[in-house]
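About this split. The held-out portion is used to measure sequence recovery: a designer receives only the structure tokens and must propose an amino acid at every position. Recovery is the fraction of positions where the proposal matches the reference. Here is one held-out target exactly as it appears in the evaluation file.
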């Protein structure tokens, strides 16, 4: 996700850089010093653009009461993971008092990626496996290997209706995995009963994936409704066979 503050800052630096270039230089100007200033400003602009995600993650992790560092224990589904309990830190849940991360005496957390819903990868008592579920699970499992360091950033609501933690999952590079899953078509937007911080950004990412028919959009018209042309493919036949074997 983009950091608006850093984007504006880099644009401001770029503006002053261009302003300096267009200033009419007098004979008395030290050209070496002038060139050094221009080079320094250019370096700042490049750093802000290239390291924007990492800088934003550093700021959130160190100066926000909504972020905690932890490590991966297991990936359950494309949108659900288990992590180690982070170091003790108080989190402020919406409409409640401050909640300690150890308040429930847990050894691990089950975390849902907020704003994202991926197809089911396996059948359960109440639901069948869904097409592209295994692909979504495989992708997230590859990105979130056991003991991988991640940062969880919480929104106003800490839990879903099943008492699972809700968070944005950030990789060390500053990449928001929630956003990546929607961008690459590994899932759909999950409509929560409350507003989330990056809702508009998520909608834009999903729409781009839908137009390009990436991932789930190559199989589904919309969530839960398969394309008729997909039902004629070998991939769908293999999926049907697995479902029948599990009945």
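Reference sequence for scoring:
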């Amino acid at each position: 996700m983009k950091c608006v503050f850093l984007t504006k800052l880099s644009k401001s630096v770029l503006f002053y850089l261009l302003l300096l270039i267009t200033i009419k230089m007098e004979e008395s100007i030290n050209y070496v010093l002038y060139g050094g200033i221009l080079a320094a400003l250019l370096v700042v602009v490049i750093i802000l653009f290239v390291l924007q995600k990492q800088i934003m993650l550093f700021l959130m992790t160190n100066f926000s009461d909504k972020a905690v560092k932890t490590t991966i224990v297991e990936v359950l589904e494309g949108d659900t993971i288990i992590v180690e309990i982070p170091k003790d830190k108080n989190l402020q849940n919406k409409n409640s008092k401050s909640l300690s991360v150890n308040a429930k005496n847990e050894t691990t957390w089950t975390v849902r990626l907020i704003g994202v819903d991926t197809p089911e990868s396996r059948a359960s008592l109440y639901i069948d496996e869904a097409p592209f579920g295994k692909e979504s699970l495989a992708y997230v499992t590859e990105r979130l290997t056991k003991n991988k360091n991640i940062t969880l950033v919480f929104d106003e609501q800490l839990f879903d209706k099943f008492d699972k933690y809700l968070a944005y999952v950030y990789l060390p590079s500053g990449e928001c995995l929630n956003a990546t899953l929607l961008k690459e078509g590994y899932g759909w937007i999950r409509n929560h009963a409350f507003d989330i911080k990056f809702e508009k950004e998520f909608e834009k990412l999903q729409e781009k994936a839908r137009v390009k028919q990436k991932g789930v959009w190559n199989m589904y018209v919309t969530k839960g409704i398969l394309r008729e042309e997909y039902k004629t493919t070998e991939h769908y036949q293999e999926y049907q066979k697995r479902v029948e074997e599990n009945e």
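Annotator remark: The helical segments are 4-22, 31-50, 52-63, 133-143, 177-183, 199-211, 234-246.
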